[in-house]
Fold Glutamine--tRNA ligase.
Amino acid sequence: ENPSPANFIRHIINHDLKTNKHNGKVATRFPPEPNGYLHIGHAKSICLNFGLALEYHGTCNLRFDDTNPEKESEEYVESIKRDVRWLGFEWSELRHASDYFGQLYDYAVQLIKDGNAYVDSSTPEQIRTNRGTLTEPGKNSPDRDRSIEENLALFQGMRDGLYADGQYVLRAKIDMASPNINMRDPTIYRIRRVHHQRTGHDWCLYPMYDYTHCISDAIEGITHSLCTLEFEDHRPLYDWVLEQLNTPWRPQQIEFARLQLEYTIVSKRKLNQLVTEKHVSGWDDPRMPTIAGLRRAGVTPAAIRDFCERIGLTKKDSWIEMSVLEHCIREDLNQNSLRVMAVAEPLRVVIANYPEGQVENLTLSNHPQRPELGSRTVPFARTVLIERDDFSENPPPKYKRLVSGGEVRLRGSYVIRCDEVVKDAEGNLVELRCSYDPDTLGKNPEGRKVKGVIHWVSEAHSLPAEIRLYDRLFTVPQPDNEENFLNVLNPDSLQVVTGCRVEASLASAVPESRFQFERIGYFCMDKDSKDGNLVFNRTVTLREGWVK
Ligand code: ATP
Ligand code: MG
Ligand code: MG
C-alpha cells in the first residue's frame, strides 16, 4: 500500500485502478509551454505528475506545449529539461505538441466533415463582441452555416498559405448560447506566419491550446490529465473535442489549486517582465522564484520536493507562507550542509604571545552531528580575523562574546583574552591585541569559565569573498493582487557585503556548493566567483525570522 498521505487525486486514482477505468494504467504528463523558465508553481505540478507516476509504477511524459511560436525558444526548452532533471525526475518520453501538428490538422478536417467546425472570416474584434457575456448569449457568426465543402476548401487554403494572418480562423461549432463561454464556438486554428523552433516554416496556421491539449493527451494515452483550477471551465470543451473525434483513448482531466506563494509572483509573464526590464539580473537571479533562481540561491531539490508534498493538494486557491518553504530549506541544509567559517565584517586580532610565523593545522569537524561527513584542516596563526560585532567596548547585558579584558573561545581553537584595543587618530577601532592560553586547545581553561564561542579565520590563509544577502523581492504578501506589481518591488532585496574573508578550505569549492557559514547562515557559492573574489549567496538565515 501507498505510504504517501491521502489527497483527492490519489483517491481518484485508487478508485480508477479498482474499477479498471483506464485499463489499470496510470499515465500522467507535465506540459509546460516553453515561453519562460519554470517556477516554484511548476514544481508543484512536476512533483505531482512525476511523483504519481513513480508511486503507481506508471509513466509521466514531459510534453512541450509549443503552439505559440512567437513566445517560445530553445533556451526555454533546455532550461525546462535541466530543471525537471535537477528536481530529481526523468520523463518516460519527451514529446511536443508540435509532433502532432499533422494529426491535429487531420482531426480538424474530420471535425469540418462532421459539421463540427467552420471557417470564420469575422475579425478577432467581432468574435470577441459576438461571444456575449455571462448574462447574455452570444451571436452566431454569419459564416456559421457555411457548407462543409466550402469549409474544407477554405481550411485547405489556410493550410496552403492563400490567406493573410488573421483573415480566417477555424472555430468549433458548439453552442453560442451555452452558459459556459468556452463552449461558444471557440477558435481552434489561427493563421500565423511565424517561424516555429521545431517545425520551421512548415506551418502557417497553428492550433489553439484547448484543442491541442486534449488531443495530445489522447494520443499519448494519458489517463489522468492534471491541471490547475482555471481550466475547470474548459473541461467540457476538452471532453467535447475527444467525443466528437471519437478518439480511442479518453483521458480524464482533474483540476487542483495552483500554488501561490507569499511575497513572490508565479506568473511567467510577470517574471519575464522582471527579467527583460532588468529588475533582476536574469531568470536565475537568486531572488526569483524560478527553479534556476532557487538553485542558484542554494536551495536543494529535496527541499523543494518536501515543500510540494507538505503543502498538499486542494481544490481551493490559497496563499502559502514563505516560511513554509524556508522551513523545508533549513531542515535539509541543517542536516546536510558542511560547516565552514567565514567572517563577513572582519576585525583584526593579533595574538601577541603566539610565535610569529608559526602555523598550526587544526582539525575541525564538517558537521557537529554527523561524523561520517568528515573533517577538514583549518590553519591557525598569529593574526586572525573575527566578526566586527563579536567584539564590544560597551557590551549590553548578557553579552557572551569578546570584551576588553575578557575571554572568548575561537571555535575549534584556543581561548583568547583581549588585552588592548588599538585605535587610529580618529578613534576608529583598528585591531585588537590579544593573548592566547596554550592550554585550552580541546579543553576548558583551568579555574574559570569561558562561555562565548566565536568564529574566525587566519588572516594570511583566508580568501577574500563577497556575500550577497537576499530579502524578499516584494514588500507585500500578494504582489499579484496589486494594480502594478512593479510598484511593490522591495528596493532592499539585495545587499552586497564586500571585504569578507572565508576559510582556506573554500578554495576548492565550486559554484552551487552549499555551506553553513557558522553562526551566520546557509550560503551557496555563486557562478560569479573568481580567484581573488569568491561570491556566496545567502540561501536562508539560520533560524526563522533571524536576519543579520
Ligand atoms: P504561467 O501562468 O506562469 O505562465 P502556465 O500555467 O501558463 O503558468 P505552463 O507552462 O502552461 O504555464 O504550465 C505547465 C504546467 O504547470 C501546467 O499544467 C500548469 O497547470 C502547471 N502550473 C503552472 N503554474 C502553476 C502553479 N502556480 N501551481 C501549480 N501548477 C502550476
Ligand atoms: Mg499554460
Ligand atoms: Mg501562461
Summary: The pocket of magnesium ion (ligand 3) is lined by residues 268 (CB under 6 Å). The CA atoms of residues 62 and 81 lie 8 Å apart. The longest strand covers residues 415-423.
